[in-house]
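Final report, closing paragraph on structural work. Over the funding period we assembled a curated collection of sequence-structure pairs, and we close with a single example.
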Amino acid sequence: MSSTITRLCVSRRYSEAAVFNGIVYLGGMVPESGATDIRGQTADVLAQIDAHLAACGSDKARILRVQIFLADIADIGAMNEVWDDWAAPGHAPPRATVQAALADPAWRIEVVVTAAQR
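Its predicted structure, as stored:
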């Protein structure tokens, strides 16, 4: 096993992703814009997840675990509609969804993903 850690999209405060021993760890993915509803924000975040996983040599069928933070748990039904259309059939990962205060009040969702590389 390699002890190398690869980080992507590194800023002073955090990295968008890190890869270690074939496991991809994504930071909390938040919407690019808070101007849309939960469906739009969810679609935005899931597209970001797809892009980051691809950059790390993975994809949504390789997701090991997901944590979803909603500003209002009442949004879970609408969020699930978008999620269900996105999730890889037969590869639904273990998932936790909770209500949480997010860093920007315009954000309705934040998602943290752990996945295996291909």
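The mean pLDDT is 96. The two ends are 16 Å apart (CA to CA). We thank the funder for supporting this effort.
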